[in-house]
Amino acid sequence: MSDSSRIKKIRGYQVLDSRGNRTIRVKVETYGGVSDFGDAPAGASKGTREAVELRDKDGGVTEAVRIVDSVINDALRDFDVLNQLAVDRTLLKLDGTVNKSRIGGNTTIATSIAVLKTAAKSLNIEYFRYIGGPKTRYTPIPLLNILNGGLHAGNMLKIQEFIIIPKDFDSFSDALFASTTIYKKLKDLITERYGKIYTALGDEGGVSPPLEKTRDALDLVYTAIKNSGYEGQVYIGMDAASSDFYNDGVYEIDGKKYSPDEMIDYYANLANEYPILYLEDPFNENDFDRFATLQSKLKNTIVTGDDLYTTNVEYLKKGIEKKSTTGTIVKPNQIGTLSETFDYIELAKKNSIKIIVSHRSGETEDHFIADLAVGVQSDFIKTGAPARGERTSKYNRIIEIERDYGLEYYGKRL
């Protein structure tokens, strides 16, 4: 072990995320003077099985910072940043709980990311190359949340995200720039119909027009695609985040109440009317069976689990057994360490489940998940609209990787 990779000091910082909330940043420094940082993002819509964030009563993270400066710094001093597994196992041992509730999943993930980034820097290689090695050959397809409902908006829509998916393009750059054209066209449509005030941006950069029904939102997005000249190349996705509108055994959406079985037909009808390639969390987080029934009906749609799995191998195994989905969201902060994240991705890939590396609604300007998505050869990356610096930093990073390393666009493979 050289001094360039041996940990000298680990320090925590209380910084701001994209919603103006406080979050934790962790910096790792080696004896050789190499250092890098990791940030913990935060979600608004969360699965109940996610790793627990350690927060003060006022919402701050001063206790998390204290733990980094003392407990984690003392435990990991002299560890090799190149030994990610040993570092992450030590973090798990320090916490000792199933859901990271003792020292906090936000604390562990920020530390885990900082260690990996410092390791890559100590070898003077790109983060994505350190993660994936020479196997990295393509860039992921972006899923761009351009219209918001649910907990991400102030309108009456229940579906949380309406997404565009630029699939049939020659490069990531072409796909992204086409998406920006659609995004601007959508804002023009909303300005014409409802007024410019409704083009104000939500947490993830999407717009929130005064809509009540799902079809109204889909019509707007589909019209923006057609008016931009990209019909047939750009598809539609939805993140229902349905646990947020599921109460007492029924789903309340579009001013009506639907039983779980009626929701199967609800989604199937939408998929027949619109080019819906992707559907995330269509049922509450415990309904593995109806996920499976819907996926069996929608052969051309990637039914995807987020709250269903929370980047946890235990729940993914259950989904695999029941054939619940053909896609899974990957959010490292849901599980708390990168080693656990890599185990999760490996299990999904072995079972032909598509990977969607995802941001959270509360992000920072760090573009690490872009490198993560390329490094693990994710099928998709989900990181918001093509707006707001904490979102565009991820997209711009992939453009940089594509140009510098000549990677192929995965859209041509899907």
Provide tags for this entry.
single chain, 414 residues, alpha/beta, Enolase-like, domain 1, 2 domains, 13 helices, magnesium, magnesium ion binding, EC 4.2.1.11, Enolase
What does this structure look like?
The structure is a single chain. The chain has two domains: about 5-125, Enolase-like, N-terminal domain (Enolase-like, domain 1), CATH 3.30.390.10; about 130-410, TIM Barrel, CATH 3.20.20. Helix content is about 40%, strand content about 20%. α1 crosses α2, α2 (about 85-95) packs antiparallel against α3 and α7 (about 260-275) packs parallel to α8 (about 290-295). The mean pLDDT is about 95. It is built from 13 helices and 16 strands. The strands form four sheets. An eight-stranded mixed beta barrel has the order 5-6-7-11-12-13-14-15, surrounded by six helices. A three-stranded antiparallel sheet has the order 1-2-3. The relative contact order is 0.15. It is α/β, with parallel strands linked by helices and about 425 residues long. It is an enzyme of class 4 (lyase). Pfam families: Enolase_C, Enolase_N. Belongs to the enolase family.
Mean pLDDT: 96
Stretches with pLDDT under 50, minimum 5 residues: none
Helix and strand composition category: alpha/beta
Q: What's the tally of helices?
A: 13
Task: Spell out the helices and strands N to C.
Answer: EEEHHHHEEEHHEEEEHEHEHEHHEHEHE
CATH-level-2 architecture of the largest domain: Alpha-Beta Barrel
Radius of gyration: 21 Å
Number of domains: 2
Specify the helix fraction band.
Answer: 25-40%
- CATH homologous superfamily descriptor of the largest domain: Enolase-like C-terminal domain
- Beta-strand residue fraction: 15-25%
Distance between the termini: 42 Å
Largest sheet, in brief, is: 8 strands, mixed, barrel
Care to count the β-strands?
A: 16
Strands side by side in the biggest sheet: 5-6-7-11-12-13-14-15
Subcellular location: Cytoplasm; Secreted; Cell surface
Binding site for substrate: 152, 161, 280, 306, 358-361, 382
Pathway: Carbohydrate degradation; glycolysis; pyruvate from D-glyceraldehyde 3-phosphate: step 4/5
Pfam family, one: Enolase_N
